[in-house]
Fold this protein.
Amino acid sequence: MTVLDRELLASFDASVSDVSTAVTMPPEVYTDRDFLEFERQAVFAHEWLCVGRASRIAEVGDWFTTTVNGEPVIVARAKGGSVRAFSAICQHRGMQIAEGEGNATKFTCPYHLWSYDLTGRLLGAPAMERTVGFDRKDFPLPSLAVEVWHGFVFVHFDADPAPLAPTLASYEPYIEHFELETAICPDTVTLADLPWNWKVMFENFNDGYHANKLHHTIQDFCPSELAAFPVPWDESSNVIVRTNGYTHIDGGFNATTKALLPVFPKLTEAERWRSTFAMMPPTLCFGTAPDLAFFFIVRPKTADTIDLEIGYLYHPTSLEHPMFAHLAAMSDVGVQVFVRQDQDATTKVQRGMHSRFAARGRYSWQEETHVQFNRWLVQRYRRGWPEA
C-alpha cells in the first residue's frame, strides 16, 4: 500500500501557509521508501543538481565520477575547455566504464574495450563490423545538460532545461564580493551513509532557531535572534536564503568565535557582520563567513541515509598566508564541534520521525526558511503527484 494518496497530498497545504500558522511536513515524507522514489522522479529528475566544483577538472582531460540521483556519471573537461557530463554506463552491455577521477583522452570499457571521448562520443567498438546496421554515432554515452554557476557544476537530466542562473538571481547581491568563480577549494571530504533523510539535512543547515541553542557558547556570536529572511521566496526561485548577524565584526565558526583566515578583501563592513546560508535544493547547501565559504552537496541513498560532500572556499590570497595550513586546520577543528552537535541532532530527528508519536509541530519565526523550503517542495510534489 502506497502513502502517495490524495489525503497526503492535501495535507501539504498546512505546511505552506504563513510561518505563524504553518505546521511541519508529515513524518512519512522523511521515512517512506516509496516517497523517496517518488521524489527521485518528481524532483531530482527535473532539477539542476550540483555535482562539485569546476576547479576539480581544471585541465583538459581531467575527469571525476559521481552518483547523481542514483546514476553513475562522468564529469569531464573536454577539448576547448567546456565542461561535459555523461553517463558512466557503457552502451554495449551496461558496465560502468570509470570510477574515481583522473586525466585521460578517452574512456575505455574494460569489458569489451568500447571507447569514448571526453564528450561521450563512441570512438571504437572492436569486432562490430559484422553487426547489421551498426553505426558508432548511434551509441554515445547519454549526456546531461551542464551549467556552471560561480564555479559550481550543475547537471540536469532534461534535454533542454531552463537556465539555472536566473532562478538564483535573488542571492547574487549577497555573494558578489566573495568572487566565488576564483575562490580556491583545496579539497573536499565525503561522509557516507549518514543516518538521516536529505530534507532533514537541508532543514538543519538553514535553521536559525537552533543556532545558539544546540550550539550554545560556540555560536553565541551568531545568535538566533539576529536571523533575518531578506529574500522572499517565489515560485520562480531555486534558492532559499537566511542571513544571520554577529555580535562582533568578522565572526568565525571556531572556538575563538573570530575569523582566523584573511577576510575576503572586497567585503563591505556590513558583510563582515553576518553570515549567509542558502539552500539550492535538492542538492546544494551553501554558506558564507567573512574569511571562508562552505558547501554541502547532498546525495540521497535511502529514505534514511545520505552521502554528504563537504568543502571550503577561500580567497586566493588566503593561501599566500605563511600560516594558512595551520589556520585552516584550526578553523576546521572549530567546525567539527558544530558537525558533531548537528550529526547527533539530525540522527535523533530521523529516528524520531519513525515514532508513532512523531507530530506535525509548529514553527518559530526563526524557522521561516523551513516554510519556504516546504513551498519549493510542495510545488514540485503537486506537479508530479500520481494521478491514480
Summary: The helical segments are 6-11, 28-31, 33-42, 172-175, 198-205, 211-214, 324-353, 368-384. The two ends are 13 Å apart (CA to CA). The first strand starts at residue 49 and ends at 53.
